[in-house]
Amino acid sequence: MFYPRNHMKNILSILTVLALAAAAQAGCGAKISSKGTVKSYDSEKKELVVSVGGSDTTYTLTPETEGADKAADLKGKTVEVNVDKHVKSKVLSVAVAAAGEDKKEEPKKKEKKKKKA
Q1: What span, in angstroms and rounded, lies between the C-alpha atoms of 89 and 58?
Q2: Are strands 31-42 and 55-60 parallel, antiparallel or unpaired?
Q3: Across the beta sheet with 31-42, what order do the strands follow?
Q4: DSSP string across 42-109
Q5: How far is CA 6 from the centre of its chain?
Q6: Per-residue pLDDT of the chain in tens (117 residues, 90 and over written 9)
């Protein structure tokens, strides 16, 4: 007996496996953000040393890091460094931290509490 082959089922199975494999490779995009003052930058090694909470942390910048081209100008400035949550060595971005962000939010909360009382 001759059984006809169902090519459509094979093609759909292969496509499903490929779609699942691609989804497994995608990152979740979670990042860890830390603010500190830049102590130094080594342009040869692409290493940025940031003082966060009294301790120094060294970050290695890559060509994919946003703001890496301006890292040499950040010495002595307060910066925000975003690192991938799952791959701690992967620096996503380096940027000058916005001054007074936290201070703006606190008065709003206090005003709301005063109005309710």
Answers
A1: 10
A2: unpaired
A3: 55-60, 47-52, 31-42, 78-84, 91-96
A4: ETTTTEEEEEETTEEEEEE--TTSBTGGGGGGGTTSEEEEEEESS-TT-EEEEEEPPTTHHHHHHHHH
A5: 46
A6: 666 677 888 889 999 999 988 877 766 778 888 899 999 999 899 899 999 888 898 998 988 889 888 888 888 899 999 988 878 788 888 888 876 554 334 445 555 555 555
Q: What is the CATH number of domain 31-99?
A: 2.40.50.320
Could you tell me the end-to-end alpha-carbon distance of the chain, in angstroms, rounded to an integer? 86
The overall pTM is greater than 0.70: no
User: How many angstroms separate the Cα of 42 from the Cα of each of 14, 45, 52, 67?
Assistant: 48, 6, 18, 15
Structure-token pair, residue 5: 């082959």
Query: Which of 33, 27, 48 is CA-nearest to residue 82?
Result: 33
